[in-house]
Amino acid sequence: MSIDLSQFIPSFLEESFEGLELMESSLLNLEAGDNETIHSIFRAAHSIKGGAGTFGFNKVTEFTHLVETLLDEMRDGRRDIVQSDVEILLDSVDCMRLLIESARDEEDCQDEKITQTSALLAKTLGNDSQSDKSIVDNEATDADIAENGQDKKHWQIQFIPEHQLVQTGNDPLLLFNALADFGQVEVQANIDNLPPLTDMNAEELYLHWQLSLISDCSEDEIKEIFEWVEDECELIISLKTNENTQTNNTPKNQRSSAENLADDNLNSSVGSAPENNQNNDLTENKKAVQSSALDKKVISTEKSPAKKSEVGSIRVGVDKVDSLINLVGELVITQSMLSELGNDFDLTKVERLTAGLEQLLQNTKELQESVMRIRMLPISFAFNRFPRLIHDLSKKTGKSIELIIKGEQTELDKTVMEQIGDPLVHLVRNAADHGIETADVRLKNGKPETGTITLDAYHQGGNIVIEINDDGGGINRQAVLEKAIEKGIVEPNATLTDSQVFDLLFEPGFSTAKEVSDISGRGVGMDVVKRNIQSLGGRIQVESEQGKGSTFRVHLPLTLAILDGQLVRVGSEVYIIPLIAIVESLQIQSKFINRVSGDLVLYRLREDNVPVLPIYQLFNLPADNKEVNNALLVVVEADGQKVGLMVDDLLAQQQVVIKSLKDNYQQVDGISGATILGDGSVSMILDIPGMINIALEMAQKNQKMLEQETV
Amino acid sequence: MVVDDSNSIRDMVNFTLKSAGYDTQEARDGQDGLNKAKESSFDLVITDVNMPIMDGITLCQELRKLPNFKFTPILMLTTESSGDMKLKGKAAGATGWLVKPFNPEKLLATIKRVVR
Predict the structure, then answer these.
(1) Which of B3, B4, B8 to mutate to test the interface with A (most CBs of A within 10 A)?
(2) What ipTM was predicted for this assembly?
(3) Residue span of the structural domain in which B89 resides
(4) pTM assigned to the model
(5) What range does the domain containing A366 cover?
């Protein structure tokens, strides 16, 4: 029977990556004498090696073997735990990750680093020929097997087990059965050692056996069957061939020719024929398996680009699933109660109906939360790569940096988590590279020599906030402003608030670092960081104080599937504005209205001039109120730009489930999706940046038309 | 009963056994395995050696102390093929060992050798 294990590859991969993360974080915390930690690192490497071997990821196995050997020496105390070895192991973890990734993608991994690291490992271990040797060993055994004779041999086996043999769970009968797989077996039990019944211990074995086996197997193969019991028995294996008997055993030499004949008959008829067939079958089977495996490989390489968009799996704690089942149970009870109520309903039962509906509301809410929790993972999944990053960065920059991680149990949607990883890395790199000053500068400014970067995550009003804080030099406001003016991003005499200045960092092509370093790159990143965060429906804020440090705050929605929305009415239509985008809502006072050229209306909101976008105009709707005076204005922010959306009425705030327009219909400018409201009607979710773009285009068109008219 | 701290190995062993028609139970480490063994009895125990909380050798020693497991075959699933490891396993009362990488055909063949 051939069993296809390829279905277990994804779970092996997932487990391996977890193992690698564990190795990495444990290595960073490893101190001499910490046995439990080194054991757990060893176990992780060990499991990866075992699994990789099963799936034929030979490069992974070979490499991991070296790592494991080194770890084993450390574990046994044969090798002291020194920093240089830990560094090699950390590099090895990277290599293993590369190798496993390329095994996953069915690519050949040719990374220079792997060759280097494995050479380094071998050098550290002091025996770089080891891996070659094991290959040779394997070949030798293969050759042994191939060499083994084709002829049937007559084996004599004497098996004298020790009394306690059965107490390790071994069973002589099954051993004999295994022998019978090789050929014809005759068994003779010897009861000489059987004690009198009164002395007999039922848990012990007193018999021994004399077996004869007619088969083409080798002595090694017979020994292998008894491998597990070889220390608990006396085993004498001898060969009884015609030649042997002639040379070795003189008494047996006098066997009659009739006996010899009988032997020959046995050889040719009984033992061999079925056995041979079986062997052939086996080899054929094997070939078939190999070729089908080959076929599969060819097919899957062709498919590999498509494979990348594979649906990921999620591992969920049993408690979460249990609570879900619990809630569904309650929902069923509520449902049956309500349907019973509906069978013969009269007005006296209104109270019970209300109570039932109340319960239904509660059930649904809890169910929703519970389902959402299934997709939630503690943010430590995203945070746990940072100790390593800081370790490497502080080595590279020569700065001493301490990383403090807080709130790592805060839970975040899996998809959001996966996509926020890279932007966070970028921000932390920046903090280490640009934020934290060198030790001498820090000492001169009266700060502790070691810089501190703090990562924190917490919930804030239905959102999750991730904070990256450093106690470095802070952002130089003047430098940013000068650079922006030089790049033509802002007008030379513009007056900007601090937050506006810091927002300039996220403009494309902006970089204040005087020298480009290989750590933070060339300032192409910050705008990408911002874009990534925005595409997750989040936003980023900067706070900084010169000389004291900076804080980057990333606000993210808890999930991508559900949105906290503000329902607004325009004419007869209800729209949803994402709550996260709303700055404030207000009633327009006519004294703050400024009209500028074209149709553009600016509203003076404290120190800002906010352009007013009448939604009815953008979407061409009949609105109740087309007059700006006394209208309701919802001020929203996107891309660092505030705009006021003119609406007829503010309705409820509620959570809405996002349905994609693109999947169900097509992409519409200014609309990010749709949802179904409580009364069954469909409502559009406004895409704030998209609306701003539409408004800008319209304004430009109007401007042109105006210019043409004047000409 | 299959005892292994690695989900993927456990899943694979399980899958192999189930497709050959055996009923299986899983345990995540030695302690878990021991607890389950105290609640019921099994025809065969396959255990990893290197595990957190309780390793396979200790599990084996502990199992042999239970009346139900005096004669139960216990197979060690191990990557360490050194004689030392085998001696330790034997001393603890293991029936035999299977050397990783895990090979389903070999596992089934071996099981035939220890389970009636």
Answers:
(1) B8
(2) 0.77
(3) 2-114
(4) 0.55
(5) 318-374
